[in-house]
Amino acid sequence: MLTASEIRQYLTSGIFGNDKSLDDTSEIDNAVISVVSRLDEGEDGSVSMKDINSHLLNLDTLLNLDETVDWVQHAVQLPESVGRIFRDNHVTGSEFAELVDDNGELLETELQITKKSWRKKLMKHIRLKLLGIGTVPSPPTDLKVELPHRCDLVTLSWMKALPTAIT
Question: Cβ–Cβ contacts within 10 Å for residue 19, how many?
Fold first, then answer.
């Protein structure tokens, strides 16, 4: 059984290596709330092994092959070539737990992702995904399209959406 305080300790203990992705108190608070709310199927304020297993078994429904490729390219922001590796090897969300096992060894040995910075970035984002941390950003608001009299130019402008708390 994991409590919110144990999840907080795990998130701040360096699971991302030297990357301090969650270094702000509000980010950590939101991450803990997100983990508990997404994984706590028993709704008892803690995360049991049954909750974790249920979450992991349903990862393939969270990210099918196309969604995984899009996620690698857009959320993780890696090149299209890395997305192609995931597609060619039919990697979906159901394989994420195996990919982070043994410090991500399969990313290099099986998927042939040789660039260390890409493997580290994938490891960090896969761990966040496994924990249920993160949300889809809000779409931009007040989108404007300007078409000047030239055929080779389009200007897009928008207002940045305000961040919302993870619930």
Answer: 13
Three-state secondary structure call for residue 167: coil
- The DSSP output letter for 145 is E
What's the whole-model pTM score? 0.66
DSSP 88: H
Q: How many of the other CB atoms lie within 10 Å of CB of 22?
A: 20
Q: Residue 18 carries which side chain, given as an amino acid letter?
A: N
**Partners of residue 2 on adjacent β-strands:** 47
Count how many Cα atoms sit within 13 Å of the Cα of residue 68 in the half-sphere of its side chain.
24
At residue 120, what are phi and psi to the nearest 5 degrees?
Answer: -60, -45
pLDDT in tens, 45-62: 778 888 877 777 766 556
Whether 99 and 119 have beta carbons less than 8 Å apart is answered as no
Cβ contacts of residue 128 below 8 Å, gap of 6+? Answer: 21, 134
Q: How far is CA 116 from the centre of its chain?
A: 18
| Residue 104 per-residue DSSP state | G
Q: How is residue 164 written in tokens?
A: 């919302």
Q: How many residues does the chain have?
A: 167
